[in-house]
């Protein structure tokens, strides 16, 4: 074992000394809820976590008492108001969100289109900022929404800077074939080829891969390191803009906004 590997192993052991298993299990339960899973019964919590029923019952009861879960009269569990409070506090306290606010508003005003900021979370893009043009007809995407990275312009920009090993860990083979748009990438080989091109040119275009009638162009946001900390995009209706239009003045404005956000982060 090398010195660096031994040091990493010691660090992991030291962190484990302070791990509170009951808290970790409570967070595991909260993570069951997302944009697609908004309600669960106790038995479903048990099935999805593998926790014993008595343990799951105690955790759910505690979370309910503290306001992180609500239970309807028929026993259905939903995320509580306390979860929303934490989410709002996280966004307000995020230097990334703060640094991006003015550049993204200027970008939205200059283009008249929907503007987004997202980060990579597993194989998904998590939306941290969304300034929506009311004319854009898409799925109900909002702050906190997640979408498959392999089918989104922001996701592809962020995936492009991963190592092959990291990409293999994040994006499963089962991902392909699940895209909702007519041009969704259909294989790992095709995605890998796209990512190589994206990294070379510094931007990604999504042409009706996520949904019919939706196009977008995204660029990475750097804050001094070699890997991006986030991505921003402009999303447009395919009826108004063809792919070439995205690579023109719109792309120039997106690049300028990303550069400004990076400068603001570096100065923070």
The chain-level mean pLDDT equals: 86
Which stretches are low in confidence, meaning pLDDT under 50 for 5 or more residues running? none
The fourth-level CATH homologous superfamily of the largest domain is: GAF domain
Overall number of strands: 8
Give the proportion of residues in helices: 40-55%
**Main beta sheet:** 6 strands, antiparallel
Provide the structure class.
Answer: alpha+beta
Count of distinct structural domains: 2
CATH architecture level-2 label of the largest domain: 2-Layer Sandwich
The Cα radius of gyration reads: 21 Å
Q: What topology, given as strand order, has the largest sheet?
A: 5-4-3-8-7-6
For the record, what CATH class of the largest domain applies? Alpha Beta
Question: Distance between termini?
Answer: 39 Å
Q: Oligomeric status of the shown chains?
A: single chain
Reading the helices and strands in chain order gives: HHHHEEHHEEEHHHEEEH
- CATH topology type of the largest domain: Beta-Lactamase
């Amino acid at each position: 074992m090398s010195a660096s590997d031994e040091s990493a192993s010691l660090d992991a052991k030291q962190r484990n000394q302070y791990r509170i298993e009951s808290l970790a299990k409570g967070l595991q339960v909260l993570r069951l809820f997302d944009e697609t899973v908004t309600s669960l019964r106790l038995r479903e919590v048990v099935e999805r976590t593998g926790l014993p029923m008595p343990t799951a019952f105690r955790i759910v009861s505690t979370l309910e008492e503290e306001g992180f879960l609500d239970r309807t009269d028929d026993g259905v569990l939903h995320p509580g108001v306390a979860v929303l409070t934490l989410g709002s506090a996280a966004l307000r306290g995020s230097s990334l969100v703060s640094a991006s606010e003015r550049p993204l508003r200027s970008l939205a005003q200059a283009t008249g289109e929907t503007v987004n900021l997202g980060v990579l979370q597993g194989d998904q893009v998590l939306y941290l900022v969304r300034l929506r043009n009311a004319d854009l007809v898409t799925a109900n995407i909002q702050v906190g929404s997640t979408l498959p990275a392999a089918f989104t312009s922001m996701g592809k920009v962020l995936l492009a800077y991963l190592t092959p090993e990291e990409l293999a860990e994040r994006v499963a083979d089962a991902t392909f074939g699940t895209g909702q748009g007519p041009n969704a990438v259909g294989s790992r080989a095709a995605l890998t080829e796209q990512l190589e091109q994206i990294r070379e040119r510094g931007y990604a275009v999504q042409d009706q891969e996520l949904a019919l009638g939706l196009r977008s162009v995204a660029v990475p946001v750097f804050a001094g390191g070699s890997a991006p900390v986030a991505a921003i995009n402009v999303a447009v209706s395919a009826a108004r803009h063809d792919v070439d239009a995205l690579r023109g003045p719109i792309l120039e404005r997106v690049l300028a906004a990303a550069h400004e956000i990076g400068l603001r982060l570096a100065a923070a």
